[in-house]
Amino acid sequence: MHPKLEIPLDILNLVGIVCALFAIINIFSATAFYILISLPLILLYISYCISTLFIVVRKLQGKHLQHGPLKLGFWGILINLFACLYFFILSLVTLPSFRPVTAVDMNYVGLLLGAVIAIALGDRLISSYRFQTVAVPLRPLKIFAQQRRPMLVSVSERLLNTDNSPGVSDNVVRNYHFANVLPFSLLETKYGLQLGLYKGRIFISNIHALLSHEASTKFPVQEGSPLKKMAASGEGSLISKTRYRYRLFPDWQTSYLWYDNQGPLPSPGQSHVDADVIKGRYPFLDQFYFQWQEIYESAFERQECHLGSVKEVFTEAHERVAWETEGFFIACWLALQDDVEEVEYKPSGTYRLERRGMGEELC
Hints:
By secondary structure, the protein is α+β, with helices and mostly antiparallel strands. It has helices spanning 9-28, 30-60, 74-91, 109-130, 138-147, 157-160, 226-233, 275-281, 286-302, 317-335, 358-362; strands at 131-136, 152-155, 174-179, 184-189, 193-198, 201-206, 244-248, 257-259, 340-345, 351-353.
């Protein structure tokens, strides 16, 4: 920036030098020079034409855009139509001006214009396939990963490196670009729950289940895996026909897991799921489930809530966020079991989890 003129003098000089170098091309080939000066002009007009055309369509449909201080009424539509016609006539200059056409006097603008459009469309398609913006509540996931690292098999470095600065809401939603070609894993727990992204959507899968289920999209099962062989051999028919509906919420000195009255009950009036039943029915989960339960029980007693204290169970916000997030994952794991129809998880809010839609609950 020039101190007195207050203009970017270096940039302006660079632009001037580049324009002068382009002008030298006219000395060697007038055809190449005319192509270089006409192609940017035509591309500029095409961009104007596309926007003007959609404005005309909206006006003809009666869906007028919000007017500014200047309103031409019916004349505005005529002016827009004339502009589109002008752009169309101008596009004819890309055609050869006379025949027969030779390599010397060929109008290469049309050819280069088609190449530019093809490159732009190709780049757009490739970019949309490889990258997509996904809204993910990264901060609670990061807090959970930091507080409960021993019970994780793996966690993405990208997740651990997200911003966790004070003053940011616990439920903040950030947009990040993730590779969209292959499934991208955010974290995996030791009881087999995997959270990741695939084709621009969140997937939550249970690697220990007989069948792989997804939150928002199908997660591919690798060829040759036991899961694939089991599905091919028909062993998937062993899935239990009983479909439980659970409610998961903290209640001191209980298992925290209850049968929903709308689902099947082992016996009339039995709503509580005993600890022995959890161990026998879900052996992959029970160890981690009771560790999660013990965290709450210890905090509950430490705050003397069982004696009537009105204190918060968790003294630190990050402890509460980590515990509630882990409970959400446990509820997701249960919802992915073949004998479960739905899980209602109620920490400080209410989440209804089914095999489909868990990604939406997470967001």
